[in-house]
Amino acid sequence: MTSDIELEALRRKKLDRLRRRLEKKTETEAETEAGQPASPREVLDRFFVDRAWEVLDAAKAQYPKAAENIENTIVRLIGEGRIKSKITGEELYALFLRLGLRVRLETHIRVLEHGKIKSLEQKIREETSQ
Fold first, then answer.
1. Are 125 and 87 in contact (CB under 8 A)?
2. Which pTM does this prediction carry?
3. Which has the closest alpha carbon to 45: 28, 66, 64?
4. What is the span of the domain harbouring residue 67?
5. How far apart are CA 45 and CA 20, in angstroms?
């Protein structure tokens, strides 16, 4: 009997979550239809994951016009429904490479040693001083 009550409670929770998600989706669609198109940043924020923003920001700093064109194209393709999956930093970086734009990213190599994170530079210094 308690399992029936628990199942019913779980069903209600799930139904509530689905209802809220549907309301949020309809609100977003209503805003877009009301003449307030979502900004490119908002659109991309829903699709970019991992280091995608880092790649796009670095590309904008290095290739402003090309990166702006690529950003607008991605937003347009998302709006048309041709892009439906999340975009990772690696995928975006590969896109820039395929287009002939080598985006330079700041890279740090860190070493975990005895529970402490050290830069590679610190690690080498320690080893050479010993």
1. no
2. 0.62
3. 28
4. 38-129
5. 20
